[in-house]
TrEMBL record:
<dbReference type="Pfam" id="PF00126">
    <property type="entry name" value="HTH_1"/>
</dbReference>
<dbReference type="InterPro" id="IPR005119">
    <property type="entry name" value="LysR_subst-bd"/>
</dbReference>
<dbReference type="InterPro" id="IPR000847">
    <property type="entry name" value="LysR_HTH_N"/>
</dbReference>
<dbReference type="InterPro" id="IPR036390">
    <property type="entry name" value="WH_DNA-bd_sf"/>
</dbReference>
<dbReference type="Pfam" id="PF03466">
    <property type="entry name" value="LysR_substrate"/>
</dbReference>
<keyword id="KW-0805">Transcription regulation</keyword>
<dbReference type="InterPro" id="IPR036388">
    <property type="entry name" value="WH-like_DNA-bd_sf"/>
</dbReference>
<comment type="similarity">
    <text>Belongs to the LysR transcriptional regulatory family.</text>
</comment>
<dbReference type="InterPro" id="IPR058163">
    <property type="entry name" value="LysR-type_TF_proteobact-type"/>
</dbReference>
<protein>
    <submittedName>
        <fullName>LysR family transcriptional regulator</fullName>
    </submittedName>
</protein>
<keyword id="KW-0804">Transcription</keyword>
<keyword id="KW-0238">DNA-binding</keyword>
<feature type="domain" description="HTH lysR-type">
    <location>
        <begin position="5"/>
        <end position="62"/>
    </location>
</feature>
Length: 316
């Protein structure tokens, strides 16, 4: 069993040995000179040996004192390095907390975050999904990601940065397209899947040659785009999908683009950070990764749509 030693006495001896002075050691430890002398005397009594030669005015260590001093230096250096490492790990382990709009969180960010964690294994990320625009300002998040017209949510507390736009695309299952969609337009029994939070159908009809059948008067209404996409994949009708959220389903042929027009969104995904709060190193790393990944992905989306004959209409 390891025998306990007085850390106070060991620190006092190490300080005296390093400074070669009781006075300087006392100043460093913020105690009195007699207190330092008392601690070293207690240590010598405990070890049953003399550590400091007191026969001269100058501080001289005995051979045993030199051996103990060298060992203590190594031990204190190890303690210091260990505490620094643990402190760094503790800071990293706190990780990054992000509040993200539900559709973007589940259909895009969740599919990409694994790359970040593999690239930066020492940084943890906590993602909380929320309805668009619900900022939960009473809670502590490093970043918030929502969509809307630029500047909508920026205020005295939040700094906004645009992440990306997207392309609005009419989408349905291959089977539904064969039975309900024609090149001339929509059949009378076409069923529309509508997102009550974001419904760009009127704009889509406005910027294309197709007649608006008044879809807001009938159809199924959901409160999230991903629910509309899921219903469309199941053959429940046609919806407008966000190219960021729907690309994987299009590439997998679960959804098709029956019409050759897509609209560039007037709204954007944006990232928000508290003003006057300096980014941590981990936050800088994450933000740089996010912007880079989104830029690559957005180029991939645009190239895929152009390759497949989709005309992208800029309605801004």
């Amino acid at each position: 069993m390891r025998k306990r030693r007085s850390l106070t006495a060991l620190r006092a001896f190490e300080a005296v040995a390093r400074n070669r002075s009781f006075t300087l050691a006392a100043e460093e430890l913020i105690v009195t000179r007699p207190a330092v002398s008392k601690q070293i005397k207690l240590l010598e009594n405990e070890l049953s040996c003399t550590l400091i030669d007191r026969s001269s005015n100058n501080i001289q260590l005995t051979p045993i004192g030199i051996e103990l001093y060298v060992g203590l230096q190594q031990a204190f250096d190890l303690i210091s390095a260990t505490m620094e490492r643990v402190s760094n790990q503790a800071r990293v382990s706190q990780g990054i907390k992000i509040l993200v709009e539900r559709d973007f969180a589940s259909s895009w960010l969740a599919t990409q975050i694994g790359q970040f964690l593999l690239q930066y294994p020492g940084i943890s990320v906590e993602i909380t999904a929320e309805k668009n625009g619900h900022f939960r300002m009473q809670e502590d998040f490093d970043f918030r990601i929502f969509y809307g017209p630029q500047g909508t949510y920026q205020n005295d507390s939040l700094q906004e940065k645009k992440l990306c736009h997207w392309i609005d695309l009419p989408l349905c299952s291959p089977e539904y397209a064969r039975t309900h969609i024609t090149s001339q337009g929509f059949s009378e029994n076409t069923h529309f899947l509508l997102d009550k939070n974001y419904n760009p159908w009127d704009d889509w009809f406005k910027y294309t040659e197709y007649e608006n059948p008044g879809i807001t008067d009938f159809g199924t209404v959901f409160n999230e785009t991903t629910l509309c996409l899921s219903a469309a994949i199941a053959g429940g009708g046609i919806t407008i999908g966000d190219s960021f959220l729907a690309l994987s389903a299009i590439q997998a042929a679960d959804l098709v683009m029956p019409y050759r027009y897509g609209l560039k969104s007037v709204e954007t995904y944006s990232i928000y950070h508290q003003k006057d709060v300096k980014h941590s190193t981990e936050e800088d790393i994450f933000e740089n990764w996010l912007f880079s990944t989104i830029s690559i992905y957005q180029n991939k989306v645009d190239q895929y749509l152009l390759k497949n004959g989709i005309t992208i209409i800029d309605r801004s």
